[in-house]
Amino acid sequence: MAVKSLSENETAPDDDTRRTLLRHMLVARGVDEEARRLQKQGVLDLWPSCEGHEAAQVGSALAAGPAATVVPSYREHAVALLRGVTPEELLAQWTGRTFCGWDPHRVRFFPYTMVLAAQTLHAVGYAIGRRMQGLEDFVVVYVGDGATSEGDMSEAMNLAAVESASVLFVVQNNGWAISKPAEEQMRTSVAERARGFGIASAAVPGRDPETVFAACSRAAAHIRGERAPFLVEIRVGRINGHTTADAQEVYRSSDDIARTKAADPVTGYADRLRGQGLVDAAWFAAVETEVREIRERLTKEYA
Ligand SMILES: Cc1ncc(C[n+]2csc(CCOP(=O)(O)OP(=O)(O)O)c2C)c(N)n1
Ligand SMILES: [Mg+2]
Questions:
Q1: 268-287 per-position pLDDT tens digit
Q2: Overall average pLDDT of the 117-140 stretch
Q3: Nearest C-alpha to atom 16 of ligand 1 is from which residue?
Q4: pLDDT at 135 over 60
Q5: What is the pLDDT of residues 72-122, one digit of tens each?
Q6: 171 in Cβ contact with 141 (< 8 Å)
Q7: Does residue 102 line the site of ligand 1, with CB under 6 A?
Q8: Which of the chain's termini has less CB crowding within 10 Å, N or C?
Q9: Cβ distance 206 to 55 under 8 Å?
Q10: What is the DSSP string of 8-77?
Q11: Is the distance from CB of 52 to CB of 236 less than 8 angstroms?
Q12: What angle do CA 67, 106, 63 make, to 5 degrees?
């Protein structure tokens, strides 16, 4: 099937979508801050923060649309919330109450996995199965830069390529696998590696949700048009340590941490939309109220 390639203009989000992107980013930030606070109180055992990843997660999830099935890793909290996982459901696993706090069927969002890259094979197998059932909607799988060095990822990319599986691989490259820098574990980019397996790919910066939204919209159009996989590598900054159990100051320079914080995608996008007159003080106040109520609910449920 011929693929209609979409231009930048055709994939640019409209103003309502831009406000939606920002709202989801602000909600995810509020939930993340509350989860880290609760972890410090000993209520959660652990929390892998998604601070710095919000634009990549919200932009990709919104572009994929509600019909896609999402297979996450363990840090995709902004995607989970956007899919309809409630904040209470999201935190339940990290309190040790359950292996998965949400109903994966209801939200079409698989349980988190800590087994690096295992989910990439699950995603490809699921996409192949969906096609056998005559269902053509695609699967989005999230994976980190470090996990792409696992054998499972190579198997998954190869299988997706030869089976022409409708899978969007979203690689959030935050430059670190815990304390191992990405440049010490690969000689090419992940996007280049995908092409070696016969998978079309793109690499984009992940600070601006609109860039991510546009790239993932084009990737989705490719998958739907070609019935073939696509990989988008998104370069993001990890603001906090790997998890709340990690002291990144030990292995990361204070300059690097400061630069990453200064490039915060949430404040950057909020400032931009405010500057363009797309959101005003009343809009921010409404979102702040929403976030405060979520945080109060989480404290009531868990603290
Ligand atoms: C198969 C496997 N090997 C090792 C680990 C230990 N481990 C947990 S997270 C992690 C680093 C993952 O880095 P990356 O894929 O870049 O994701 P990020 O945490 O940066 O989002 C490692 C080595 C694991 N969970 N599973
Ligand atoms: Mg990483």
A1: 999 999 999 999 999 999 99
A2: 94
A3: 146
A4: yes
A5: 999 999 999 999 999 999 999 999 999 999 999 999 999 999 999 999 999
A6: no
A7: no
A8: N
A9: yes
A10: HHHHS--HHHHHHHHHHHHHHHHHHHHHHHHHHTTSSS-----TT-HHHHHHHHHHH-TTSEEE--S--H
A11: yes
A12: 30
Residues 168, 229 contacting (CB under 8 angstroms): yes
Which residue has its alpha carbon closest to ligand 1 atom 11?
A: 177
Ligand 1 test: best mutation among 143, 169, 178, 244, most atoms within 8 Å of CB? 178
116 within ligand 1 shell (Cβ under 6 A): yes
What count of other Cβ atoms lies within 10 Å of the Cβ of residue 212?
28
Q: In 3D, which of 96, 1, 100 has the Cα closest to residue 43?
A: 96
Residue nearest to atom 4 of ligand 1 (CA): 116
- Domain limits of the chain? 49-243, 264-303
Residue type, 60: S
Per CATH, the number for 49-243 is 3.40.50.970
What's the rounded Cα separation, in Å, for the pair 178 and 243?
8
